[in-house]
Amino acid sequence: MSNPIPATLIPGDGIGPEIVDATLAALDALKAPFVWDRQIAGLEGVTTAGDPLPKATLDSIRRTRLALKGPLETPSGGGYRSSNVRLREEFKLYANLRPALTVVPGGRFDNIDLVVVRENLEGLYIGHEHYVQIDDDPHAVAMATGINTRAGCRRILEFAFEHSIATGRKKITVVHKANIMKALTGIFKETAEAMYEAKYKGKIQFETVIVDACAMKLVLNPWQFDVIVTTNLFGDILSDLVAGLVGGLGMAPGANIGADAAIFEAVHGSAPDIAGQGKANPVALMLAAAMMLDHVQRTDLATRLRQGLSATLNIDQVRTGDLGASPSTAQFTQALVARLKA
Ligand code: NAD
To answer: Which residues are catalytic?
Structure first.
């Protein structure tokens, strides 16, 4: 194997192990250079190690700085915090990258190719929330504080500009609500404008759009967008919206990239309603694996994986149930592996 690359593998919960096995079969067919260190987290972490994010899993990611992760369930009760949020904080995974690319043509929107870059650590998601009691109502007032820092804005914006230019993108759209949240999202807009003037002018087109208008434009004419960069809450909402433009959760990969590590995953959850039935769509996780190959500069293998997926879905017409067909995860994987080995 050329230049082996150590990486952590977390099969995850629900359909996680099924789609992870399918993805490993595709990566093996490509002779991808990853050397996996298999670890547990989520519900499996709780049942086997008493912790949804055991120390051994964190140590492994600290060592490899690279992980492929199945969906994790946060056990309700027991006061557990979401493992996904803990992973973001622990490894300062400040950039959430969500590409939306049409893989199966003929849907409601065709030829979609855009990327949402979401700030992952700041904003209204920092969890500073509380209630104020008035008389006998303990929840009479609810309050939340959002925090965006200059350094945090610069970090995500620089990532978005550099990533867009390096991948040949044409335009970057900065999404904000600075007309109302003048400080909280004004700092994001103002930092973006200053960085564009100082460093990126002439290298890429630039615009700023208010979030509500952006949502409408994404539905009316998504083709006008290329890369969207925005704060945490707006990014959470808009990245699900763009997943909907390309056929939903089964087709949507995501990457969490930071100072200390990069973690690749499908956008969807553990799908407990279909777990263990062999019918999960593994495409989202496979597209996340393609992003991981890009990240380690094996774009040759990433391109072969994306081409293989497209050929299996569109030429061979092998698709799982969520795409309106009957083949199982195993049948889809078999057809893809045959394509990749051809
Ligand atoms: P979900 O994404 O698991 O499922 C929503 C619907 O989409 C279900 O009907 C499911 O069957 C379907 N679906 C999802 N992925 C599919 C696939 N690959 N193929 C075919 N159908 C698929 O969302 P949920 O039910 O709200 O969440 C279930 C659990 O997953 C929760 O515990 C939640 O916290 C967790 N979750 C984890 C992550 C993550 O680890 N990144 C993300 C979202 C939700």
So the answer is: 125, 177, 212, 236
pTM of the model: 0.94
DSSP string, 109-170: S-S-EEEEEEE-SSEEEEEEEEEEEETTEEEEEEEEEEE--HHHHHHHHHHHHHHHHHTT--
CA 165 to centroid of ligand 1, rounded, Å: 33
Distance 269 CA to ligand 1 centre (A): 3
Rounded to a whole number of angstroms, the distance between the first and last alpha carbons of the chain is 20
The residue assigned the tokens 């777990």 is 275
CB–CB of 37/87 below 8 Å?
A: no
Distance CA 232, CA 227 (A): 15
Residue whose CA lies nearest to ligand 1 atom number 10: 271
**Mean pLDDT across the stretch 80-97?**
91
pLDDT at residue 135 is higher than 60: yes
CATH superfamily of 1-97+251-342: Isopropylmalate Dehydrogenase (3.40.718.10)
Task: Tell me where in the chain the CATH 3.40.718.10 domain(s) lie.
Answer: 1-97+251-342, 113-244
List all residues whose CB is within 6 A of at least one atom of ligand 1: 15, 71-74, 84, 249-250, 265, 268-274, 280-281, 284, 322
Identify the residue whose C-alpha is closest to ligand 1 atom 27: 269
Q: Whose CA is nearest to atom 13 of ligand 1?
A: 271
